[in-house]
Amino acid sequence: MSHILSAVKGTATDEVRFVAEKEGMPIEAMLERVSRGKIAILKNKNHNISPVGIGEGLSVKINSNIGSSEDKPNIEDELKKLMVSIGYKADVVMDLSTGGTIDRIRKEILGNSTVPVGTVPIYQSVVNSVRKHRSMFKLTVDEMFDTIGEQAEQGVDFMTIHSGVTRESVERFKRQGRLLDVVSRGGALMMEWMEYNDKENPFFEHYDRLVEILERYDVVISLGDGLRPGALADATDRGQVQELIILGELARYAVERGVGVMIEGPGHVPIDQIETNIKLEKRLCDGAPFYVLGPLVTDIAPGYDHITSAIGGAIAGMAGADFLCYVTPAEHLRLPDIEDVKQGIIAARIAAHAADIARGVKGALDWDIKMAKARKAMDWESQYRLAIDPQKAREYRESVSLQDTDVCSMCGEFCPIKLQHAELKRVRNMV
């Protein structure tokens, strides 16, 4: 029985109990939120990992995207990215492979990961179709569902499925008109297949078939935002909102049948629209966990989009987003390398932690208090240990030869903290 169906009966699975204890949430509150689809538990029955909870009342989680492309299909590179993702404490990873031996890459990632793994199955379905039929448009409905079934059985913990890219939402999207059209790879693939074959989206038309497969393995469905805006000028338009309305209806159907759900969100959003987007999702989707890409708050910073996304992610998390997909400095430019992955994870973790503090998540501020105390004590080893990137903190400070090892090279002998220590010592001696 799935986590949701067990929770409906008032019984906590081992995974639900684990998450409740880790997050410091009373089991009664956890059961109530899981049963209503407000918390999703990421843990496939066939994947030997510790579960991760995402949703209302929990700490904000972050995702690291890895995966090969046709230009860079090296499996060893992706395993290194996986190790960096885990080492720098990404809560979840997604394998977005489109090149090389995709099945083997995913199998290796699943076998080596200690955190939940997500995929976008339509990627592999399309690649398989091109290799088999020499055309993505000859991809059959059964082949699409076969891929989902295979990945679920293999142990994938959550899947992005673009079920909201329907004839209705696409028509509204076209009538709206956009500066940058569709930027979601999965959304574009789905829309082109639908138009070429003159058919409805199979993941919408046969949604019950999809839900049945996912419930069997306790796979969470991450309902993809195929019509998300890829430019600030397109944010919160009719196509995006129409898809969100459909996703809300699909989310309710899935939860009623015992399948955990997350809703994916934009994208590129001006700062003043971020809170509105969060409120819309929570209202239209019955409080389902919201998984946002960034959002990026400006379009003009290629090479620095880990920063633009961290700004948006912190604001989104404070407003109620539950899950941040990292964005690397390579976004819009190339497949990220290992250093890009690291930078993306660090930026997203900073955003998530800032949001946790603003949301009053239990224990979040304690970390910062410990750092402040270490700074006051000029305890550099503790400061390195508490830093989100200990190695970089140590390297920065130790890159300059110091005459006074109590301080850093910014203030030197005029360090305000050390001056106050000296004054306090002088006063005590006078007494």
Briefly characterize the structure.
The protein has 431 residues and is α/β, with parallel strands linked by helices.
The fraction of residues assigned to DSSP E strands is: 5-15%
Q: Uncertain regions: pLDDT < 50 for 5+ in a row?
A: none
Spatial extent as radius of gyration: 23 Å
Within the CATH hierarchy, at the fold level, what is the topology of the largest domain?
Answer: TIM Barrel
What is the assigned CATH homologous superfamily of the largest domain?
Answer: Radical SAM ThiC family, central domain
Q: What is the name of the CATH architecture of the largest domain?
A: Alpha-Beta Barrel
Helix content: 40-55%
* Continuous helix count: 19
Overall pLDDT? 96
* Structural class based on helices, strands and sheet pairing: alpha/beta
C-alpha end-to-end distance: 71 Å
Number of E-type strands: 10
SSE series: HHHEEEHEHEHHEHHHHEHEHEHEHHHHH
Name of the top-level CATH class of the largest domain: Alpha Beta
**Biggest sheet: strands, sense, closure?**
8 strands, parallel, barrel
Describe, in plain words, how this protein is organized in 3D.
The chain has 431 residues and is an alpha/beta fold. The chain has 2 domains: 41-359, Radical SAM ThiC family, central domain (TIM Barrel); 379-430, no CATH class. Helices cover 53% and strands 10% of the residues. It is built from 19 helices and 10 strands. The protein has helices at residues 3-8, 14-23, 27-35, 75-87, 102-112, 121-133, 141-154, 167-176, 185-197, 202-205, 207-217, 238-256, 271-284, 305-319, 338-359, 364-376, 380-386, 390-398, 416-430, and strands spanning 39-42, 52-55, 61-66, 92-95, 117-119, 158-161, 220-223, 261-265, 290-293, 323-325. It has an 8-stranded parallel barrel with strand order 3-4-5-6-7-8-9-10, surrounded by 8 helices. Helix 14 (305-319) packs parallel to helix 15. The longest helix has 22 residues, at 338-359. The mean pLDDT is 96.
